[in-house]
Amino acid sequence: MFCTDRRAARTCPTSTQAVEDAEASAVRAAVGGTGAQVLTGDARRPADADPDRDGAALTAMNALSGTAGGW
Predict the structure, then answer these.
(1) pLDDT(48) > 80
(2) Of the residues 10, 22, 31, 57, which has the maximum number of CB atoms within 10 A of its CB?
(3) Which domain holds residue 14?
């Protein structure tokens, strides 16, 4: 489907998150003054849409391992 830029802007939400493979200082310099946050390390976790899914996945894997292992 092709549409005009105006229609695309109405139908597609604005992206509020991006991933960059560069030094954090370079990214901060590039987005400086825009209000963007550059998150690194553990600070990235709260930006995840569902940060608790890791715990749920671990619980599921523990249950599977216990069942498959005969515990």
Answers:
(1) no
(2) 31
(3) 5-68
Distance CA(33)–CA(17), nearest Å, equals: 16
Query: Rounded to 5 degrees, what are φ and ψ at 29?
Result: -65, -40
**Single pTM value for the model:** 0.48
Overall number of domains in the chain: 1
Environment class of 57 (CB within 10 Å of its CB; exposed 0-12, middle 13-18, buried 19+): exposed
Question: Which residue is listed with tokens 């400086």?
Answer: 32
Q: Would you call 52 helix, strand, or coil by DSSP? A: coil
**What pLDDT score does 71 carry?**
58
